[in-house]
Automatic annotation (TrEMBL):
Residues 198-332 form the GST C-terminal domain. Residues 1-17 have a biased composition (Polar residues). SUPFAM superfamilies: GST C-terminal domain-like (SSF47616), Thioredoxin-like (SSF52833). The record marks 279, 322 as: Lowers pKa of active site Cys. GO terms for cellular component: cytoplasm. It comes from the Bacteria. Glutathione binds at residues 129, 155-158, 173-174. It holds the Pfam family GST_N_2. It comes from Tumidithrix elongata BACA0141. Its EC number is 1.8.5.-. The active site is at residues 96, 221. This is Glutathione S-transferase family protein. It is an enzyme of class 1 (oxidoreductase).
Length: 357
């Protein structure tokens, strides 16, 4: 006799096998057992501390200590490294705020034809920067440092101001390189009359540089690389106290030192550009975004919209290199989709301050 449609042997069970009952889920916690959690936390914390000890040297309180740069020669008409066109070369990483300073000044002064550049990218697996294209027989930045100074054992950082004539590193301190670019190559600059470090403002510029370096430029790293809660708390409070102060200064000044663009603005700009993109989330600098400040936000837009400056800002590299390569801070390597930085092109209305002053 034919099976009825209600029989177990129908199209939904053609093999006429018994249908097992659903297995009830076990009641209990969704996390692994406590001993496994404790072991995992211990192993991860230990590995994190080892990796951070190499990435970010610390003091006894767990605060980040930035290693000093080691090449401090100068371009000068009376020195070993004399001003010349196409003699000097910059090695830069597009995500690095310190290297970014040199690109901004190179653009503002119109030195693109006088100073060539090469791009390097971070390679965590190799423990440093690699050249996007091999040069001087070197594939990594460490090999370039070794070429310049055999036996070199310090950190291999960007930017690097390289002398192509003698195959030597002139300088690897961004604060000093931008002073040289501003003053020592004017005969080769498209805009030689632009002085970003005028004598009459130097004392004021230096005060702002000291303030912004300690609390903001390096302050974001002191937050992100802090290895104790107390070290982080101190750095974060100093950071936002200083940002609040700067926002107050910029209420009546178009730029930090009045209505004139200076190196103090360049040094602050490269940190502000990365702030909402990387430091706010990854470095835990999340009390406020720069775009939430009424004056700092507009100031950032003003600087970004200076002709040529936006072309030095590589959003994709910043996100990829911070989120993708700082493994101890972002183990999964997931790169966020945001933020939307089209707001940097919005009107800033800060030119009125120059007119008023």
């Amino acid at each position: 006799m034919p099976q009825s449609p209600a029989s177990p042997t129908n199209s939904e069970n053609p093999s006429n096998t018994a249908i097992p009952k659903a297995i009830p889920k076990k009641k209990g916690k969704s996390l692994p057992p406590k001993p496994i959690i404790k072991l995992g936390k211990f192993v991860w914390t230990t590995m994190w501390r080892v990796m951070m000890s190499n990435l970010a040297p610390r003091d006894r309180q767990g605060a980040y200590i930035r290693p000093a740069t080691q090449f401090h020669h100068s371009i000068h008409v009376d020195g070993t490294y004399k001003p010349a066109a196409d003699r000097y070369h910059l090695y830069v990483g597009m995500s690095c705020p310190w290297a970014h300073r040199t690109l901004v000044v190179r653009t503002l002064k119109g030195l693109e034809d006088a100073i060539s550049i090469s791009i390097v990218s971070p390679a965590p697996e190799e423990g440093g920067w690699i050249l996007n294209q091999p040069e001087q027989g070197c594939r990594t930045l460490a090999e370039l440092y070794e070429l310049a100074q055999p036996g070199y054992s310090g950190r291999c950082t960007v930017p690097v101001l390289w002398d192509k004539q003698t195959k030597a590193i002139v300088n690897n301190e961004s604060a000093e390189i931008i002073v040289m670019l501003n003053a020592e190559l004017n005969q080769f600059a498209k805009y030689p009359d632009l002085d970003l470090y005028p004598l009459e403002l130097r004392e004021q510029i230096d005060r702002f540089n000291e303030k912004t370096y300690n609390a903001v430029n390096n302050g974001v790293y002191r937050c992100g690389f802090a290895q104790t809660q107390s070290a982080y708390d101190l750095a974060c409070r100093e950071l936002f106290t200083t940002l609040d102060e700067l926002d107050g200064v910029l209420e009546s000044n178009r730029y930090l030192c009045g209505d004139r663009l200076t190196l103090a603005d360049v040094r602050l700009f490269t940190t502000l550009f990365r702030f909402d993109i990387a430091y706010y989330g990854l470095f835990k600098c999340n009390q406020r975004r720069i775009q939430d400040y009424p004056h700092l936000g507009a100031y950032l837009r003003d600087l970004y919209q200076i002709p040529g400056v936006a072309a030095t800002c590589d959003l994709a590299s910043v996100k990829r290199d911070y989120y993708g390569n700082l493994f101890p801070l972002n183990p999964g390597g997931i790169i966020p989709l945001g933020p939307d930085v089209t707001n940097l092109l919005a009107p800033h209305d800060r030119d009125r301050l120059s007119i008023e002053n």
